[in-house]
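Hi Y.,

Following your request, here is the sequence exactly as I used it, all 83 residues.
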Amino acid sequence: MQTKEEHEYQSFEQDVDLLVAALKDSFESSDANYRIDDLNNSLYVYLEGLTEYTEEEIEEFAAPLLEELDLDFEHIFLLPLPA
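Below is the corresponding structure, written out as tokens. Let me know if you'd prefer a different format.
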């Protein structure tokens, strides 16, 4: 049986996975990855093909998703997936 903390962390991971999948779909990326920086309370989301979008387009596509899921990160960074 899971402890409350284990269940909360699993739910948190599922929310992050859901956000990354939604961003991947929004930007029509074939690959995506993420990294959580616990020290700075930041989420780094790496998306293939992100360089094809302007900053305004990125904000337009990402803002509704970020607001909807309301994850408890100080910062969420969207970055191109390194080759």
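The chain has a mean pLDDT of 92.

Thanks again,
Q.
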